[in-house]
Amino acid sequence: MAGSEYEDAASQPSTPVDDKRSEASADPVVKSCPIFFSPALRNNIILNQYPLRSANRPYNTQTGEVATGVRIKPKTGWMEVDMPLLTSKYYDPEKATRFGSEEQPLNQQVLSSRLQPPATKLMVGVFRNGQLHIVPVRGISQLRPTLRHVDEKSKRARDIANSSVTRAQAPAREPARAVQVTVKQNTEAPKLSTTPIIRATEGEAWVDYSIGDVEGATSLLRQLECPAEHQLVQCTPK
């Protein structure tokens, strides 16, 4: 009987505590470091993604495609980036003049996106002297090329056509008369209408941002470090 009880006890499955201990022994902690939350660039870090751009062709000085302008609408969250077009390859001067003008042919494209808050808490960090300094990511953009040049060309054509029709069909002036207009408010309009969003977006002004160079990037990298006056020198457990 004793032997049977011993075999039953040995055949029981391991507990979660035992599993955690075995995992800890298989993957031991090799190093620990203090973590600091840097306040300097809080709410100023944006992660830009380019889903239609190959990872082998990033926008940088090596490819000759570096942003020339950046603007954001802070309230509605829209972002636009001006990117030059490579005129050495796959560039048609005739079409560039058609969508632009003789004086200013089309030589850049506009990337656009709406900033979205991260689905999870994303952080940007830097190691300095055995310390990890982190800053939260404010938003994420997925910048894609727009067809603004096509829309602008179509708008110019419509404006010219409408102007010609208006001049040709201008009626004779009639004497002014009073007209009573009654406006009925639609209280049953759907609350999820996109009209207020579109109006807010069109009514908000763009805020231009400057584009830094390598020295500016180095300065921003230093700002990721938490200043000494904000570092917790001693921690007393409760």
TrEMBL record:
GO cellular component, one term: nucleus
Source organism, top-level taxon: Eukaryota
Residue span of region Disordered: 1-25, 154-174
Database matches in Pfam families: RPC5 (PF04801)
The entry's keywords: DNA-directed RNA polymerase, Transcription
GO BP of this protein: DNA-templated transcription
InterPro entries in alphabetical order: RNA_pol_III_Rpc5
Protein name per Swiss-Prot or TrEMBL: DNA-directed RNA polymerase III complex subunit Rpc37
